Each structure stands twice: as C-alpha cells, then as structure tokens.
Amino acid sequence: MGQNIVLNMNDHGFTVVAFNRTVSKVDEFLAKEAKGTKVVGAHSLEEMCKLLKKPRRVMLLVKAGDAVDDFIEKLIPFLEKGDIIIDGGNSEYTDTNRRCKYLEEKGLLYVGSGVSGGEDGARYGPSLMPGGSEKAWPHIKDIFQSVAAKVGKDPCCEWVGPQGAGHFVKMVHNGIEYGDMQLICESYHLLKDALGMTQEEMADVFDEWNKGELESFLIEISRDILRFKDTDGKYLLPKIRDTAGQKGTGKWTAIASLEYGVPVTLIGEAVFARCLSAIQEERVHASTQIKGPENTKYTGDKKAFIEDVRKALYASKIVSYAQGFMLMRETAKELGWKLNFGGIALMWRGGCIIRSVFLGNIKHAFEKNPNLSNLLLDDFFKGEIQKCQASWRRVVASAVQLGIPTPAFSTALAFFDGYRSARLPANLIQAQRDYFGAHTYELLDKPGEFVHTNWTGHGGSVSSTTYQV
C-alpha cells in the first residue's frame, strides 16, 4: 500500500520522500519499482523531515495501534508548528480522536484518513476519507484529490469532518464490506447447495448480475474467483479452507453500533458468521452428530429461484447500507460532527472495495434530502424494496426449509419487518423488567412519564432509577 501510494503521487507530479524503518527496503524500492521516478529516499526520520517542504506532510502507512503512536513520538522532535502527520492505516477512530487532541496541543496538525481499494487502488486511484485537523486540508487537498479514484471528473475524496471522522467513515465502509461479502457468500451457498450448480454456471449467474443493479467490484471478483483454475486445471475455490479471517474493522463497527444504540444487525451477523466459520473442526464434528432436514435440494423452478436470490441479495444490500448510514448519522449527532452523506456515497462510488453502481442511488437520495433519516424512506429505495420483497421472503423461507444458513439475508429481512412495524412486543419486555426489577415503563398516552406497578401485591411502590445504557 505504502509504496503504491508513493508511486501514485509521483505519477501526478508530486515529489515524495520515502522512508521505511527497514532501511534496505528504501534502497531496494528506489532500485526497482521507483527507478526512473522523482521519488527521493531517506535513511532516517530526521533525514526525511529535513528533505520535506514546509509545512511538512508526513503520511504513515503502518499497522494500527501502538505502531502509530510509536512513529508519532519519533517524528515529533523533527517537526515544527503547523506540520502535518497523516495516518493512512485502519486506525480505530477513538485513537484518532485522542491523537488529534494530543498533537494539536503541540501545535501540530493531525489527519486520520481512511484509504480503501487495496494495493491496486493505492497504485491507480483509491477512495480517500480524510478527517481530523481541518487546517491541514488546504495543504493536502490537491495531493489527495489528484491521486484518488475519479467518477467522471469527481474525485472519490473529500474532507469528512473533525477528529476521527475520516477513520470512523472508513470503519463503517469496512463493516458494510463485511456485510456485502457475507450476502454474496450466502447467495453462492444457495446456488451451489440448494440448486447444485457448477462453478461455471454460478460464474455465469454472477456475470449476469454484474450487468444490473448489483454491478459492483465484489460481484465482479466473485465471478472471476468462481472461474479461476489451479495449476492442475481444477477449480481453486473448492480447495480453499472455509475459515474466514478478519482484522477488526467489522467488529469495531458492530461494537460502535452497540455503543450508540443503533441496530446494525447485518454487519453484526456478518462478523459472527466469520467467527462461526473459524470453529471448523467443531463444525465438522457436529455435522456427523446433528441432522438437519432430509430434503436439502430446491425442487421448484430453478431459473425463478436464481432470480429470487438476486432480488434477496439486492434488498438485503439496501438494508445493510441503510443501517451503515444510520450508524454514521447517530454518531455524528452524538459527537457533533457534520457529515455529508451524499459526499460519502460519492467517495465510495469508485476506488474502494464496496464500489458499485448502487452508491450513485444513495448519493442522489441524500442530495434530494440531506436530512433523510433512513434510506428505506427514500422513494427510490422504497420502490426497489417493494419489487424485491416477495422474492426475499421466498429465499429466506426456502433456506430455512432446506437447512442452509443465511444469517445476513434473514437478519436483513427481520430488521426490515421490525423497522416498518408501528408496534413491537417491547411493551412486554418493559412489563417484565418492571415486574422483576421495578425498572418502570411509560404508557402510550403519557410518553416521558415513567411509572411502576406493584405487580405481585407485595413488591411495594419503590422503583429503580430510570436510565438508558
């Protein structure tokens, strides 16, 4: 990622000083990938800082956590007031909040920037999500918007907001990425096991899906993965162990959703699905002990079911993004950030892993109504969900009947049904809480007034303090 961003900046006319703590890698980079460019090598942080034009702009691409703090401390002695440190790694947004405050107190500017697109994106145009010390933006804007991916003439990069806003938006991006990947995997599971389709047949389906509303980078690469053959001429995908890894950003998104009380259920299920995949030996043993339904193959119209799966994937994807934007809206409200949701959708429209034609519709929704509380209330998305709803329900019902796990499809549908319900059974939860713990409840005709009932006749009238966690 680091060397590719350096080369990308060089391509756009910027002179970059490159440093790596393993100094030999600097010389190797200059002799190979950066040969013939204007990239300058440095063999120490002090040398690098002396070579940089003021205000110095130092971009870190190191592992999130202590490594970032260590580099900041090593850099501080060689920087002056007004210099800028940029963290381009996947740092947790709370760390970026802390680092902004710490460095601003020392007269330095700090930027936490989400960078998405992988190695290829870094080289030829990533999605960049910078936030932090806003005074830094005029000094980095030209560089960032030059190297970023473009949709038409629009760069997939704009200032996000203060403190850790940039890294928070990147975290939500990654959480949505978890959800998208899980939804695609569930679609693959249904096509493979319920319909018994071959790799090539499934690849053809994904290829067709990539020509419509589902057109996206992840659908495209899933098609290519299905078609890829190993050196022995056999398909590679069936040989890959079914235990998914994760680096933490999906988990952070789920934790943030709990912290701010936002029901980001689909991303949570996507994280748990990876956790379930990780206990493979236990699953393999359980498969010999626990039996599911006898009929595990779909016996209806194959072509119609494939179309139902496509619509279920599309509807669930809408819910996933709706939940992600709900989380960003609530967090912005809590932390006093002013986020441009249409601008965020544009930043994700190109360069990043979740890039898709679908994001253009989200951008239009927030352009039409910047105060839109939920994507599901936008006229376009209401219509799209309505067109998919019957198929979505059939797919979830069929998966349950066939014993094929579809946690993301199922939780997306459950959220949709919960969100559109004027009444939920939480009144019983409140009554239960008041019965065993005197936690009080509100009456429909007296909202905001908390009361307690002596349900047993011997509980007394004393109630606990009312509070929200």
Automatic annotation (TrEMBL):
Keyword Oxidoreductase: yes
Catalytic residues (positions): K170 (proton acceptor), E177 (proton donor)
Annotated function: Catalyzes the oxidative decarboxylation of 6-phosphogluconate to ribulose 5-phosphate and CO(2), with concomitant reduction of NADP to NADPH.
Catalysed reactions, as listed in the record: 6-phospho-D-gluconate + NADP(+) = D-ribulose 5-phosphate + CO2 + NADPH
InterPro entries given in the database record: 6-PGluconate_DH-like_C_sf, 6PGD_dom2, 6PGDH_C, 6PGDH_Gnd/GntZ, 6PGDH_NADP-bd, 6PGdom_BS, NAD(P)-bd_dom_sf, Pgluconate_DH
Family classification: Belongs to the 6-phosphogluconate dehydrogenase family.
UniProt xrefs under Gene3D superfamilies: 6-Phosphogluconate Dehydrogenase, domain 3, N-(1-d-carboxylethyl)-l-norvaline Dehydrogenase, domain 2, NAD(P)-binding Rossmann-like Domain
Binding site for substrate: N90, S116, G117, G118, H173, N174, Y178, K247, R274, R433, H439
Protein source organism: Potamilus streckersoni
Domain 6-phosphogluconate dehydrogenase C-terminal: 166-456
Pathway: Carbohydrate degradation; pentose phosphate pathway; D-ribulose 5-phosphate from D-glucose 6-phosphate (oxidative stage): step 3/3
GO biological process, any: pentose-phosphate shunt
Protein name as it appears in the record: 6-phosphogluconate dehydrogenase, decarboxylating
SUPFAM superfamilies hit by this protein: 6-phosphogluconate dehydrogenase C-terminal domain-like, NAD(P)-binding Rossmann-fold domains
GO molecular function: NADP binding; phosphogluconate dehydrogenase (decarboxylating) activity
Domain of life, source organism: Eukaryota
Keyword NADP in record: yes
Enzyme Commission designation: 1.1.1.44
Subunit relationships: Homodimer.
Keywords: Gluconate utilization, NADP, Oxidoreductase, Pentose shunt
